[in-house]
Amino acid sequence: MNALTEFFAMGGYAPYVWGSYALALIIFIYNAWVPLRRHARLRSAIRADGRRDSAAVAAPTHRIHDENSP
Amino acid sequence: MAWWAVLRRDLLLSVRRLGELGNPVVFFAAVVSLFPLALGADAALLRSVGPGIVWVGALLATLLSLEGLFRADFEDGSLEQLLLSPHPASVLVSAKILAHWLVTGVPLLLITPLLGVLLNLSPLAQGVLFGGLLLGTPTLSLLGSVAVALTLGLPRGGLLISVLLLPLFAPVLVFGAGAVGSALLEMPVLPYFYMLGAELALAVTVVPLATAAALRASLGS
Amino acid sequence: MIAFFSRWASLPAFYRRSGRWIPWLWAAAAGLLVVGTVGGLVLAPVDYQQGEAYRILFVHVPSAWMAMFVYMFMAGASASAFIWHVKLAEILARVSAPLGAAFTALALATGSLWGARMWNTWWVWDARLTSVLLLFFLYLGFMALQAAIEDRRRAARAGAVLALVGVVNIPIIHYSVEWWNTLHQGATVSKFDNPSMTWDMLWPLLTMALGFMVYFAAAVLVRARSEILERERHRRWVIDEVAR
To answer: Least CB-packed of A5, B157, C24, C40 within 10 Å?
Structure first.
């Protein structure tokens, strides 16, 4: 038990050491979670678009504005 | 020669708008005179921080003057003609940059001795400051042209230019202000001038190419 | 060779292949980071000069390395986007900038925490901290430029020019800051790196660094995939891919 409290105390530098690791953890989780969520949302948005397009028989107006078309 | 033609045209155009020409100089003088108001009029203090103030002022004045470097030519379409001409765009661009330095950098240089008097600088510090600015301000104009070319036609481009340029300007500031600091400690000044000269030489060779590429990217050609 | 690259860099192929890699990369990154953290916090011995506070370096040093590495990666991607017009390289350069900025911010914050203990002040104009700060501004400038230009092709080409100008300037900035530092501070400020690092301190550091690298690979791929979907969202292959 004593060893454990000593470990968490980090020789009196606890806020600095744990603060650094906590900050790293926050940054790492944020930079993983936000892009993953964005990717999932994009996929579902595109899927919904596709369904709407195929439901409406209208011409695919989107493609005219496709900036990537050669 | 096309290079001369571009230079002459840009100089003529700016001479016809003398009012605008004076703006960076007025800004420079105003910024520098704000510092004693903020820091107090202690002559010894001003003498030691003066060179840094002058350098920061010159840097900011250059930043603000940059926005106009390509704007008029971009708006009336002559910039596109310049890129389409058979001459290499980087060479023509270098003429425009030189013109910019002649109409903004040189006036800043000319007023520096006066500002040095306001800040109680010694003749030695004045001389070193002038030499540093002489070698440093062309580099500022050169580096600046890349950022201007990149932000051409963007809304709020002025602020963006500053954000892009401030880290790139840091070495010029370090060597320029460092030279004066070194002179005040009676240490050699030449190494600083060599560094400023080296950066200028590098900028002269590389920047026109980068600016031409940036203009092409911005004009989409 | 060019055929190989163009096949490899084709966006649909890249999208599918990276989708298979990403779970493995996440797992590897998590494993390495956990092992490195345990090694750094528990197994590595106490430094006799700096005490327990030196354990911050197991986060600080890898993030500072990554701050540099990501900029080099960005510049490399920009160069290939600029020279060969590789779309994938444009995308990679664009999406790696926020990650590089995050690593740089982490390096600055942990450096500041470390300095708060070792120098008794939150910020010292130390040569290395100062050049990392300027690097942070370079990242922010790149991101601001990307955000300001709506057209993706133009943004990519402008960003490439800026990244290449930046990469030429980084050594100059670093050198000038070091010069400035020796003039104004002398050698009083102790360096971050411990010259006599023993193996039981070194292996957690290297494990952490590798973990950071793999994490970067995973995170950059996820961002690149979103970017691909957004650019190509009206293409047939994207609609088919998403519907599966």
So the answer is: A5
Average pLDDT over residues B25-54: 89
Q: How many residues does chain B have?
A: 221
CB of C173 within 8 A of CB of C131?
Answer: yes
**Cβ–Cβ < 8 Å for C79, C160:** yes
pLDDT digits 0-9 by tens, C15-70: 888 889 999 999 999 999 999 988 888 887 777 666 777 888 889 999 999 999 99
- Mean pLDDT computed over B44-50: 87
DSSP for C74-85?
Answer: HHHHHHHHHHH-
What tokens were used for B183?
């002179």
Q: Do A47 and C242 touch (CB under 8 A)?
A: yes
Closest partner CB to B163 (pick from C141, C160, C176): C141
The alpha-helical segments, DSSP class H, found in B151-189 are 157-184
Q: Taking CB atoms and an 8 Å limit, are A67 and C151 in contact across chains?
A: yes
Mean pLDDT of the A47-70 span: 58
Set of chain B residues whose Cβ sits within 8 Å of the Cβ of C134: 167, 170
Q: What are the chain C neighbours of B167 within 8 Å (beta carbons)?
A: 134-135, 137-138, 141, 166, 169, 173
What's the pTM?
0.88
The pLDDT of residue C134 is 92
Contact list, B147 vs chain C (CB under 8 Å) = 162
Asked whether the CA dihedral B94, B97, B102, B108 is positive or negative, the reply is negative
- Residue B26, H or E segment: helix B18-39
Name the residue in chain A with its Cα closest to that of C15.
A39
